[in-house]
Amino acid sequence: MSLFDLTGKVAVVTGSSRGIGKAIVERLAEHGAKVVVSSRKAGPCDEVAAAINARHGDRRAIAIPANISSKDDLKHLAEATRAAFGRIDILVCNAASNPYYGPMAGIADDQFRKILENNVIANHWLIGFVAPEMRERRDGAIVIVSSIGGLKGNAIIGAYNVSKAADFSLARNLAVEFGPDNVRVNCIAPGLIKTDFAKALWDNPETLKEVNARTPLGRIGDPDEIAGAAVFLASPAGAYMTGQAIVIDGGSTIT
User: For position 197, what pLDDT does the model report?
Assistant: First the structure.
């Protein structure tokens, strides 16, 4: 059996209608998992699921829309997945939001609250709906997509960085709690990736030039370059890793 074989596993990936989440859900399916595509809007989720099924066969993927700001939506996501596939073996908390760019002195309370609720509390909620069955089976993998922003300071996306630092801590603490039941919790920390979500950080040619200049690989990343880490963490290859963060940033944090 391949170390990366996910045959028979069921994976839920939030924010998976585009960007990093889409790349992750596609690669998990490629390695044998049945996958649930989830984001706020049904249409884009249906499109991604249909494309996966066209490549790998019917019922490899289903779409279950959910808004991460709604606890009821996240509960329904977990319940509907179990109704369709019978179980959840892998959870990837990828969806996040960042409604504010600028110094933290200028952020409105509701903006800061939304960042913390969507990027940290929503992960806590969804993990809470999924982890009990994993712990009962004594098998499961949870991946939180954080950011290198959680390792650094920034004058423009400080509040977002605070939330991503909290995700590292969330993973560490849950890894301690769930470890005795053989449920692993880890983070992926991407650098700047060419997604619509991060467009404000790479769309300006001068900004992009500056970022590339201080990145050893000399470029920003592609969503598919993050997906392999999720496959590793979800598969037997990552069976002894928990409470950790894999940094994938072209080397930008070492300069």
Answer: 74
**pLDDT at site 121:** 98
* CATH number of the domain enclosing 154: 3.40.50.720
- Is this structure's pTM higher than 0.70? yes
Number of domain units in the chain: 1
Q: Are 149 and 187 in contact (CB under 8 A)?
A: no
Flag whether 109 is in a domain: yes
State the catalytic residues. Answer: 160
Q: Which residues contact 35 (CB under 8 A, 6 or more apart)?
A: 10, 11, 12, 13, 16, 25, 28, 29, 49, 52, 60, 61, 62
Q: How far apart are CA 242 and CA 192, in angstroms?
A: 24
Print the domain residue range for 46.
10-195+224-247
Tokens of 67: 């808004």
Give pLDDT < 50 ranges for the chain: none
In a domain, 2, yes or no: no
